[in-house]
Specification:
There is one protein chain. The chain is an alpha+beta fold. It has one domain: mRNA Triphosphatase Cet1, Chain A. Helix content is about 25%, strand content about 40%. The protein is built from six helices and eleven strands. The strands form two sheets. Strands 3-7-6-5-4-8-9-11 form an eight-stranded antiparallel beta barrel, surrounded by five helices. β6 and β7 form a beta hairpin. The longest helix is centred in the N-terminal third of the chain and has 14 residues. It is globular. The N and C termini lie far apart (about 45 Å). This is VTC domain-containing protein. InterPro entries: VTC_domain, VTC_sf.
Length: about 240
């Protein structure tokens, strides 16, 4: 499905308890392969630096449940500059679109130093959109989001099942590449976040595998959780 030229996917999110997590992962591991980028059975580390405008529109629109909204983030894996992505995640009711383009370490370092002109070195539309939004809306770094992702792939239907663990918010720094970055756990208790991403429909085999109760589904935003944790810390 497409909207405004963007490929849309379903994204369903659930909180799961440690007991539910262990049961689910054991069933899933018997049927689906773990993401090839995983460093171990626990998955791989993701760190994202989210951006927002001076009015914190991305935070407010999410909390208000606005139909159409977007967020920019710079994402790295395993606290390395080997792969750096600028991503824009757009929400259209129950559908999500994600666009991405590669960045260099130099572009990121310049950006964090307040120099956005490095964004003009690429030809991707996403880079230009981000550059224009930075200039028009005083877009600025907002919060770092850290977690470990355990991901499983069903390649024929392009379905991804992920468990996000150890969600934490950066406290007082936007240094993406700092391995000693101070963070604060953003989810109370031992819960994990389960996400199921798919195209037009979720295959029956996956539905049966997950066996989730309807009441568990929720509108979780890792950005909002970490931003609110940051606000508590700074207050």
């Amino acid at each position: 499905m497409e909207f405004n030229g963007k490929r849309l996917r379903h994204e369903q999110k659930y909180y799961v308890s440690p007991t539910e997590y262990e049961g689910l992962r054991q069933r899933i591991k018997q049927l689906l392969p773990i993401d090839k980028n995983s460093l171990s059975d626990e998955g791989y580390h993701i760190r994202s630096l989210y951006f927002d405008d001076i009015h914190e529109s991305a935070l407010i629109l999410k909390n208000d449940g606005v139909f159409q909204r977007k967020k920019y983030r710079i994402r790295i894996y395993n606290i390395s500059d080997h792969i750096i992505k600028l991503e824009r995640k757009s929400k259209y009711n129950d559908y999500v679109a994600k666009e991405s383009v590669s960045l260099t370490r130099e572009q990121v370092d310049r950006l964090l130093a307040g120099d956005i002109e490095g964004l003009r070195e690429g030809k991707a539309q996403l880079l230009d959109d981000f550059y224009q939004d930075m200039k028009r809306g005083a877009m600025k770094p907002s919060v770092i989001v850290d977690y470990v992702r355990e991901a499983y792939i069903e390649k024929y239907s392009d379905t991804r099942i992920t468990f996000d663990k150890e969600l934490a918010s950066g406290m007082h720094s936007f240094d993406l590449f700092n391995k000693e970055l101070a963070t604060w756990r953003a989810v109370d208790g031992p819960r994990r976040i389960l996400e199921v991403k798919f195209n037009q429909y979720l295959p029956a085999s996956i539905q049966s595998l997950l066996q989730m109760s309807a009441h568990q589904r929720t509108t979780i935003s890792k950005y909002v959780l970490c931003k609110e944790r940051q606000k508590v810390y700074l207050s």
